[in-house]
Amino acid sequence: MGATTVVKARPARPPSPPETSAPLRTGRVPTGPGRRRRRAGMLMVAPALLHASLWIGLPVVVSVALAFTKYDVLTAPEFVGLDNFRDMLDDAVFRKSIVNTLLYTFFTVPFGMALGLLVALALHTGLKARGIFRTAVFLPQVTATVAIALVWLWIYNPGNGLLNTMLAFLGVDGPAWLASTTWALPSVILVGIWQGIGMKMLIYLAALQSLPRELYEAASVDGASRVRQFFSITLPLLKPATFFVLITSMISAFQSFDQIYILTDGGPANSTTMMTYEIYKSAFREFRVGYASAQSLVLFVLLMGFTLVNKRIMGGSRGHN
Amino acid sequence: MATTELLEPAPALRRRTVPLGRIALYVTLSVVSLLMVVPFAWMVLTSLRTPVEIASQDAGLLPEHWEFGNYADALKAAPFATYARNSFIIAISHTVLNVLVASMAGYALARIRFRGSEMIFYLFVAALMIPTYTKVLPEFLIVRFMPLAGGNDILGQGGSGWLDSWWALIVPGAVTPFAVFLFRQFYLDLPVELEEAARLDGLGEYRIYSRIMSPQVKPAFITVALLTFESSWNNFLWPLLVTHTDSLRVIQVGLSVFKTENGTQWHFLMAGTTLATLPMVVLFLIGQRYFVQGFATAGLK
Question: Which chain A residues in 213-242 lie under 8 Å from chain B, judged by CB atoms?
Fold first, then answer.
């Protein structure tokens, strides 16, 4: 800023006090264009800040506070200490939903990441028509999860859905996928992997394109095989991207709701219910808002915990985000 | 293969593996792409079949008779047109508000230093990381107890607040921290000379923002607009929670209600789903470059 103030002191405008952030601390009341400028800045950020305070800041505070109350919306909340968390320990369905959420995440995220990376590597070879392939793989990502779930509901239809029709063609008698306690969760996981490949591929592709070419040339000269190059150069350099994909995919996998609502309604016998679904049920079907807030707090803490553990294992990430 | 190897000159030997690998690559990618596209094709094909054909076990791959009338009938079976209109109004409102409010905030945070500007930026970054399910219950309560709205008194008691209103559908999701963050990144990259020159010309801060700096970051505007429209059109949970009347239903909720009420009418359901999917597919094909840019930054859906 120091250098630019020289440019500013031109005859066109009376010299103004140099504009830096330092004068703010001198206690002197700033005047002139600098002050007007700062005021404009505050006014410009105000609408977004107000909006975020009311619809994000306040909710976070309220959510934590309500977790320690009994509240049914109609009567005033009543402080109950840790009762909600104690109730959760006895809530077999909620425990089941935690296990399901973890299973869903631990299957969709790593498998999706491996497939996304493979497709990205294939697209990075500079072959023709890669745009078409990229579009096809990314298409599910821009489509509403509700629409996707409806299509898969029809594909999984036990009578004459696409999947069982094709299996019958091969002489296999397909099960009632979403109505079976064995197959429902794997079926939901498959949809999750299918929908998520595009995003993971995209981030990996962007990362691959920014890798330095010289390294590979040097490695080729040294006689390193392509497999060796992949494990010794590509994979380590993709670490920041991997961390980024891992965290963001985990956050969205943890919060899957739409597909559960459409595909299985959490059933059969709670075999596909997720934490988000239990929060929804507690709050909007049973009107136990305090309990639901406590459940959402558990979800938040679990997510934060996993993020921190990942950061620890991956040694943090620089470069991305 | 052996013969070509013998016929070709020695240097070609090394290149021989490339075309083979290429072919394997094309085949693999084609299979993957097919797996991604088949559900969409299945959706469209089902929407063009007769119910009889859908129920029969030995229907062909393509419909025997293309029933384009299914779409007109589906629109009669459920007010999908109204649902789509509602979704469109909300998505456009979100897009306009987000682009306007978030770009101003992003500009101020990138280019103007004022008391607390750094802290405000970190607050937005923190807000970016709050999961939906931490916010959604209290957001619902704020809507429900909105003072002086929907029959509520000044303390938010007695009525239903903003529930079942356009306010609830539009206001809470209007501005996203992600958009503020993305705009800030774009404004940061602009040269300082640009605004200095404008300031010398006597332009005020708002003019510098709207006339000088913003035209330089058009890609940011397009990216935020497309991503906002997309996520608004595809949103399900929030409209599900705050609306009950049919006239305010959005397309995604409308589809799920239709599924519950007429679960076996696959031709109508798939016609409705196609109608709900088509705008996003078209938008994506047109603005693919910006979607890719935005998603690569966001990573979050």
Answer: none
